[in-house]
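Lab notebook: predicted structure, single chain.

Context: the supervisor wants predicted structures on file for every construct in the current expression panel, including those that have not yet been purified. This is the next one on the list. No modifications to the sequence; it matches the entry in the shared construct table.
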Amino acid sequence: MTEIQLALRDGTEQIYRRAISRSLLAQESSRSSLLFTDRADLARVHLETDGWVLFLDPFGVEPEEAKLLADSGRVMPVQVGRLVESVNQIKDAVRDGRLGNPGLVRIHHWSPKGIPVNSTLRHWLDLAVWLIGKTPDTVYGVRRRSLAQTHLGWDDGPMALIDVDSVPGKRTGYFSLSMIGSTGAAYDDLHRNIGLLMNSDGIQAQRTISFVPQLDIVLQKFIDAVAAESRLTGCWQSALRIIELEERVVESMEAKQAVTTGGSND
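Prediction complete. Output recorded below exactly as produced.
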């Protein structure tokens, strides 16, 4: 039988347990040992037992650690920001052409004090790149105390602006996302779980839900890979590009000037 272990830091174990119970893991008859974790140290230990890992914090580790996990071939990264249903609704609107050509992505994130700005920034860089569909050609970053501001530019027109700040005294954070295209716009934040989609058809309010539906898809992809004993190194390409992109942003902050990246499709 398949052995399943969960080791998460943020209290979301119950969400994953429910998703696992809905998945084909309950029917899996292989002898694989699976670990769902956001801790790199536990992932390394599990790999030593020839187990497989669904890694839930690829942006919280150093680049060298991420490459080691990727090279193992038995670790699948989960880019959690892409699992949020409201964000997927915006991505679907972009993909379907309801917003026209992507123009501007605007992200604000005020995080509780103590959360590392660099790992948080990587999440939002990933989201912006995913929504636009490719890596920016130029980045420019500014860092003042706990505030990090980043501008991403694409040679063919789109741009993104990201603010990440660690707010003293706050137990919970706040997030908002705006996407403006050539024929429409979309907005999402943490207020009342409602997102807005605006185009020539008018304004539509879209109720947002958790990341559970997308999580089910990720879990099934992981299960299928384990069953087929497929190497998962390729799953890291996007995450590794984002980690490298964040390094370019830090380089820009230190040099106090824009830095080119070379760009690539996501």
